[in-house]
Amino acid sequence: MTLPKGVLHSVSNKPSRGDSIIHAACPLLCNEGEKDVTTALLPPDGCQLVLASASPRRVQLLAQAGATPHQIIAADIDETAHKGERPGAYAMRMAREKADAVLHRQLEFAQNTFILAADTVVACGLRILPKTETDAEADKCLSLLSGRQHRVYGGICLLSSGGGVHTCLSQSKVGFRRLSLRDKQAYLMSGEWQGKAGGYAIQGQAAIFIRQISGSYSNIVGLDIHRLAGMLMAGGFRFADANRTLT
């Protein structure tokens, strides 16, 4: 199948392992160019999957879940949190609004189309940390995260053809070791924090700061693929190998 212009190819169809409780940060299990049709999750006949995100991390994670989007369309929405809005509610609202934005911009997709959107929120208590854009923001986030646990909330929204709406919220806990001034300075110089929720990327150099995590590792990266696979299966997606079942 030839993908439309502007659509990104998936990088892997290998599923992830050990997503429940991990005591050391583990890398994405993605190998570029590697394909295995027996792990491919296919939409119902005549349907297509649209990913409402331009995040390379989510493209990789979606590939790990075995699903390849037919199109990738970035949702352009106001991501300002409401006053007093809780982190989990904020993540869910963002995921739904991203999906709705893509649906309304591409009304021709309304029939026979699944639109998938997700949002990742890092929070210290009820304080929602920003997607850092400056050194000062990233430094402040690292200082808040240093030596303590925080939560990562992942909102997922799947709009199905026919008007169905499926949502879920994933939560993970992450424990940072205490960061020295040198730790923070080195990480700030890496530039890896740019545009990242909470000012760090667990799949990158920040992995050395992680003392412990509980919950879904892939949720912290950007998309809980265990929960996502269940949602896709409930929506009618099936493995290419009809004899294979999801466990």
The beta-strand count equals 10
Basic shape: elongated
Low-confidence stretches: 1-38
For the largest beta-sheet, the strand count, sense and barrel status come to: 8 strands, mixed
The Cα radius of gyration reads 18 Å
Q: Can you tell me about this structure?
A:
The longest helix is centred in the middle third of the chain and has 19 residues, at 87-105. This protein has a domain at 33-128 and 150-173 and 216-239: Maf protein (Alpha-Beta Complex), CATH 3.90.950.10. The strands form 2 sheets. Strands 1, 3, 4, 5, 6, 7, 8 and 9 form an 8-stranded mixed β-sheet that branches. The protein has a two-stranded antiparallel ribbon with strand order 2-10. It is of the alpha+beta class and 247 residues long. The protein is elongated. Residues 1-38 have low confidence and may be disordered. The protein starts with 20 loop residues before the first strand and ends in an 8-residue tail after the last strand. The protein has 6 helices and 10 strands; from the N terminus they run E-E-E-H-E-H-E-E-H-E-E-H-E-H-H-E.
Brief characterization of the structure:
This protein has 247 residues and is of the alpha+beta class. It has six helices and ten strands.
Short descriptors:
247 residues; alpha+beta; Maf protein; 8-stranded mixed β-sheet; two-stranded antiparallel ribbon; 26% helix; disordered N terminus
Annotate the secondary structure layout:
Blueprint: E1 21-22, E2 41-42, E3 48-51, H1 56-64, E4 71-72, H2 87-105, E5 113-124, E6 127-128, H3 135-145, E7 149-160, E8 164-176, H4 181-190, E9 210-214, H5 217-221, H6 225-234, E10 238-239
Parallel strand pairs: 3-4, 3-5
Antiparallel strand pairs: 1-9, 2-10, 5-6, 5-7, 7-8, 8-9
